[in-house]
Every structure is written in structure tokens, then in C-alpha cells.
Amino acid sequence: MTKVRLGIVGAGIASRELHLPALRKLDELYEITAVNSRTVEKAEDFARLVGTNPRIFRSYDDMLGSGEIDAVVLAVPISLNPGMIKRAVEAKVPVICEKPVAPNISAATEMLALSREAMVYIAENYRHIPVYREAAKMVSQGKIGRPVVFSWQKWVAFGRDNKYVQTGWRQSPKHIGGFISDGGVHDMAALRAVLGEVLEVSGFSARNFDFLGAEDTAIFNIRLESGVTGDYSVFYGSPVARNRLDIVGDEAMISIDKDMAELTISGNRKERILVNKSDGFVEEFRDFYRVLNGQKNVLGSVLEALKDLAIVEAGLLSSKERKIVGVGGLLMGSDLR
Amino acid sequence: MTKVRLGIVGAGIASRELHLPALRKLDELYEITAVNSRTVEKAEDFARLVGTNPRIFRSYDDMLGSGEIDAVVLAVPISLNPGMIKRAVEAKVPVICEKPVAPNISAATEMLALSREAMVYIAENYRHIPVYREAAKMVSQGKIGRPVVFSWQKWVAFGRDNKYVQTGWRQSPKHIGGFISDGGVHDMAALRAVLGEVLEVSGFSARNFDFLGAEDTAIFNIRLESGVTGDYSVFYGSPVARNRLDIVGDEAMISIDKDMAELTISGNRKERILVNKSDGFVEEFRDFYRVLNGQKNVLGSVLEALKDLAIVEAGLLSSKERKIVGVGGLLMGSDLR
Q: What is this structure's pTM?
């Protein structure tokens, strides 16, 4: 089995703390042969961290054209994703890029077409997290009967000194809704995996703190194509941390606690399952490897990533325009014009 | 202290199981001297239950004109409230009437004017429930800092055989949204007591069961005048029973569990309080007595009851018209035309 030679772009939190630990566990599949960062010092620090002496490129395009990499890993500020994905595709280098695919839907219109020219894999790790994959299985197996209502309380205790809050490009975000989209696409990916596609959203969003860059609070009222309705309550800067998705069916309720990696069924049926606490990055890079080797790109497809982003944008747009916003129309760009 | 002579109208669940037990505890304030019901047999059964041999009236108007009552207690199907309140006011008999004040806002337009001619007290017992009064006090004392987000999970395990579900007029309701308004006005009264007035609502509602009369499921996305946003998730026919209001502030969270009569503060500050489990009916009839004796009608005012109903109607209207609905405009009737 030949190792895939990776070029890492971006030496921030994602590359250092999320990707590298996962790639170390997959060293039979990958080797990091190149590193590129806007700041050479950060690239050099990261190369030292990698340890296998990858080549440092001052230019992203030189790296793409070097012939020394089989795929590129993009972990850069969100607003740079579309342009850098495009350059990889034009260089015919397969790319795996951190989510969200773009700062907003209208900035992502080219992405779908590009993903047909070369392999573009959007790294939405939540599609690989065991607790949500297991929840999806249990719901589809009818363990709660017919799903009727869901309620997601996502209250994040981000203080001023939080490492993500401290990121420069997050403090003055070019992407919609700041953390609401940055984190929200994760949750929408998980929601869709468990309950299916979203039809429309009505939302209220607000900014309550000066240090979180943009809106830090939102309530999205979500109606799914299945007819299921539910709410997504997100609050960054909360004094309490909670991330629990409750789904009530006509027979039982399932409570999904991501941080505890715990699934609890209550009601007519009782069950409690603890699953692997994985954050999904190892599973994600394993899936990317399989896709590089010819497997269909399902979990990393651009369309999936666009759907996640469209739900968040629909909620933010609804709050501004005081109307219920359909996700399909937004994906077509119609609601943006 | 002279006892108030009450004429009870309606011999259903409310009169038998909610009002009578409370009035028995207040026998130094009240005596039941008259009973009226559409079905004479039910009136006779109820009179026997009362035990003090109240006079049975076949006609509501005869009771009002009899001179044998100082006030009338209306516990009749919701759709009858406006007309029967009006007849009491015209007979100059003070009236205490079960909530909601009317089947919808447009049917209640006369009520405010009528309440200026004679004393009309709307029996919203939730305004008297200790757990919500205590919560309001704690929030106003700043125990959670500045309120930011609330999330109310109100999941009611009503089966086909539930006594309320079995009520004929509830099975084919003339009031908006069936149980969504019947129960919802309670919750909106409590919400307003704790967090203040509601500005606007966006909602999705749905009917999931054939036996609950009307919409049985709704998610209301609520924005308060204070800027606080939150969701109210209500599902009748749920396999699990939960009634918990979580309010997250910038310093701490308060969780209000009505059924447990429990208040829990978590976050930077920790506290747990158990209060009296009263359903508020004794407190309510005590307040009504004080109002009869000249105290200003605050907790039982028609305007308060209209505000509760307008929030629920705004949510139901929002779902139908796919827009965010302002509560003020609805109270003016403008959104209905």
C-alpha cells in the first residue's frame, strides 16, 4: 500500500492539534512531505512538530506544482477556502479542506463545478463522529418510533482567552455569523445525518458580547423535509457548557450527548449506550484515503458541505429579513439576490 | 369578614378537580351558593360534591339575576368565555373566568372594554405558582446575571385516555391550536412573569396525532422586548414527560422544573431551591377575594390574559403565513385582517 504524500497548508490550531494527531495514527496511509504557511516561522515550527523533515514551501502554488505531494490539506482561514480549493483543482491536486467550504453560499457557487473536475473533500469531521453515526442508526432502526420533535441546546463556554476566540481571523470574521457558522455547520451536518434534510428555517440571532467577533447567540427554528420540527439554540460565551440533542419520537426519546459520547433512550423503551469518544478526524482521513483510492466521495462531498452552510445562512438571513427562509432556494442562491 | 357567595358555572374537570379543592381550603372567604351547568345532572352531581346544598340554576341568566351570588366562577368550554363574561358584566356581577380569555384574539376584542365596566378576573393560575414567582424574583435579583437565552422543553405525555383529551369540546376545539393555546397561555404567562414582555414570534406547528383535536406540536422561536431570545418546544402526545425552562444568563443558568417545583442555578454560582408545589389555585382565589374587596386587579387582568394568548396566536399565525409575527400588532388585531 503506497503512502499518500500530503502537503499541509496552514499551521494553526487545526493542523497542529486536530489533523497532526490523527495523521500520526494513520502513518501507514499518509506521510507529510510538504508544509506551507503564510508565516514561514509557523511553517518551520510545524515542520519541527511533524518531525519527518517535510519540505517547507513559501508559495502555495509552488507546492501544488512541485510533484512532491499527492494531495493537499487546507486548514486556513475560512474566507480563503474557495480560492485555495480552486487553485488546487486547477493544479489537478486532490484537496481535503476544513469546513465550512466557504464564508457564505454565494462565495461557494463555483465549488460544486470544481469538485467535478478534481477531487475536493470537505473535512466535516462531525459526519465521522461515532455518537452521531450510532444515533442515526438507532433512529433509522425505529428505536424512538417516528421522530416528531428535536431540541438542541448547544451552549458553549467560550471566554476571552479561549484559543479559538483568540484567532485573529475569527475576531474579525469574513464568514457569516462568526462562530454561529464556524461551529454551526458541524451541528447541521450531525442533525442531517440523524434526521435527514432541512426544508426551512426561521431564526433569531443576536450579538451579546464584544469579544466573539460577530453574532454569538442564535435560535434556529428548523423544519425538516420529513415534517419533523425542532430548535437549535446556540450561545457562545455561556457560563455553562451543554451540547445535548434531544429527539422525541412517538415511542421514545433519544438524548445525544456529544461530549460524553453518550446515547440515552427513554420513554416506552430504555437504553443507554456509551460509544467511542473519537472526534472523527482519524475516521475522516481514513475515508479520504479510500476516496483517493477510488471510493465514491459521500461524506466529504461539496454538496453536503453546502447544505450544512445553507441551513446556518438561512437562519441568519431569517433573523435579518424577518421571514421563514427555505434552504433549497438559498442553495440556488435565489434568496441572496 | 363576610363570605363571598359564589355561583359556579360548569361542572367539568376544572370546577370539580381544580376549583372546588381550592375553595374548600378557603371556606372562610367563600361559600358556593349556586351552581349552573348545561346538563342538569352534572349540576346536581356537582352540588352533591359541594355538600352545602347550593341552589341549582337551569339558566345562567337567572343565576346572574338571582341576587343570591356576589360573584360568578366560569369554568366552561373556551369558546363560551367571551359571551358568558359579557352577560356577567351586563348583570353587574363580578366574574372570575378560566383561561384562555377567548378562543382567539379577534373574539376577545370586547373583553378589555367590558373589564372596565365590571370586575373581570381571568383565572391564570400560573401567575400564582410559587416556582415561577420565585424564579422571577431570582432573575430580577440578578442571580444569573443578564438573561441571554431561554429554552423551554414542554413535552406532555397525553394518551388517548387522558381526561382532558376525552373532553368533547377539546376533541373538536373552537379555540386556536387546541392544546397549544389551552396549555400555552399558561406557559406564556409564566415566561412573561420571569423574563418580561414578548416582542415577536416565529413558529412552526404541526398535527401529528388524530386524537388531540388540532395542532399537537409546535416550536415557537420567541424574541423578548429585552432582546432575550429563546425557544418554546411543545409536544402533546409525547412518550416522555418534561416541563423544564432553562434560562442562561451571562453569569449563570437557572433551570425551572415546574413538576418538581425545583429551581437550580448552575454556572459561576450554584444553588438549588425547592418551593411549595402548589398549582396556584388557592393563591389565585385568595387574590380574587382581595380584588373583590378593592385591591387593583393585576394578576387577573384581561390585558395580561390577552398578552398570553397573543403570543400563542402569533406563533400559530407565523407557521401559517411563513413570517415573523409581532405580538403588539396582533393585539391590535392588525395581523389578523
A: 0.93
